[in-house]
Amino acid sequence: MDPELESTLNDLWQHLTSDRQAWLLGAGVSFSAGIPLMYPLTTYVQTLVEEMDAGKAGLLKSIREQLPEICHIEHVLSQLGDLIALAQRSRAGAIVVDKEEVTVDSLSALHHTILTFIGTAVRCGYRPKHGAEPEIRGSETKPLVVVDDHRAFIRQLFASRAKPGFQQSPVSFFTTNYDTLIEDALALERIAFLDGFVGGAMGYWSPEHGYADHKLWRVGAKVFKLHGSVDWHLVEDGNVMRCRSSCRYPDRVNNLLIYPQSTKYVATQKDPFATIFGHFRAALAKGPDNVLGICGYSFGDDHVDGEIERDR
Question: pTM for the whole thing?
């Protein structure tokens, strides 16, 4: 073997077996699973809104025209959040968009619709038309999303860390993705993990318990959803719940808890995001032996990039 290649592989092995190991995962890791990237997702959501409601489609078009030509659905949600905040502070409870007065209720209804369609696309999958290949829309009865690559990644990663008689610290997975594929892959590979919630398919946010190490069983991983998740909801009492998509309880306030809200910076100052970003900072500040692996992330979120680039 070439000495330089052998040295590189040895360095890689040292990283993969490090006891101080964290991963940052972006949208690219879920593309092959059937979940669209941001720009195809934006086009898909726009199409779904147009097919459902001409009025909402017109409002969405007007809001997108306020933004740079190269923008995606997260930018639209950020703009919507800001418009809602401005309308709520106005005396009329409305704001002018493209010379039309739009009420808080109309803006909030569009925001909820977009979140619902994002949730459906992420849970069920979507493949845009590509060359001769037709568009394919996943549904609740015929989902496109698969977990094979995520399982293979988890399987290989934890196999490389297996050391007889040595119990390593949990691997921290920080992901900007809304999907649950990392959690699903960990469970399918029987890797015990913590995600900040207490419960099962229905769980409540309790980081003091949901991230606490256990003496009775080995914790292999901790999962931190930097941008929320398709199964997180803000319920009427203001608490965050992890809920099954098919159930009608508990009462929710039409709020799928995914980024962005009004602005990403403000949202990170509130729980659960304040706690999650606190763990992200702590993971990055563990010292010179700390290893951060990055996959599928394009460095397009300033609030995440700033944490990585911060001097420590």
Answer: 0.88
